Inverse folding.
């Protein structure tokens, strides 16, 4: 899927379609998934058909489907810049500190 060539609405429909496919793979009815997610059946239908859904609704459905971790691919955690890594590297411990080990 080439997201750059798709309209916003087409992407929303694709997300809904993927959630619907996952729901069917896990053998949930729309009603059952909606109940478990704490949303109405009409909200579930809107999500699957790609109309008027919120990010919260997507999260609720993904949580029930056991796919919440897929959001890590959605917006990955930013990695430190090379400058930040150089600064951090300079602050790493090079050796253990001395201890006063007094045996009693």
């Amino acid at each position: 899927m080439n997201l750059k060539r798709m309209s916003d609405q087409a992407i929303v429909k694709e997300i809904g379609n993927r959630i619907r496919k996952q729901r069917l793979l896990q053998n949930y009815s729309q009603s059952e998934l909606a109940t478990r997610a704490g949303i109405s059946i009409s909200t579930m239908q809107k999500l699957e058909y790609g109309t008027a859904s919120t990010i919260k609704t997507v999260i609720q459905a993904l949580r029930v489907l056991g796919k919440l971790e897929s959001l890590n691919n959605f917006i990955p955690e930013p990695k430190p810049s090379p400058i930040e890594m150089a600064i951090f590297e300079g602050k790493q411990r090079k050796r253990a500190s001395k201890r006063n080990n007094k045996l009693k």
